[in-house]
Amino acid sequence: MAFLPKEYEVSVGETVVWRNTSGAEHTVTAYEGAVPDEADFFDSGDHDSEEAAREGWAESRAGAIPVRGKYEHTFEVTGTYEYFCIPHERGGMVGTITVTE
Ligand SMILES: [Cu+2]
What we know:
This protein has one helix and six strands. By secondary structure, it is mainly β. The strands form two sheets. Strands 1-6-5-3 form a four-stranded mixed beta sheet, with no helix packed on it.
């Protein structure tokens, strides 16, 4: 019920892979207001917005990364990105990616 490491730093153009090593489903969902201005929203359900991601999860568990599954995203814009897991957000399942030159 946590992203490990919680904070991670990559260089621009690198791909981050999240692997689900737990026994439950999770999502990787960006906080739309906490991505750099020029960067696109991202989430494991390929939605257009945080709101759509939350609705998709509520309706059909869209965006679920299955047990032993993975999700990856390539970061093309420098800056700080905050993200969370929809079902475990209240439990503190949040993380930060910092992208540097
Ligand atoms: Cu989770």
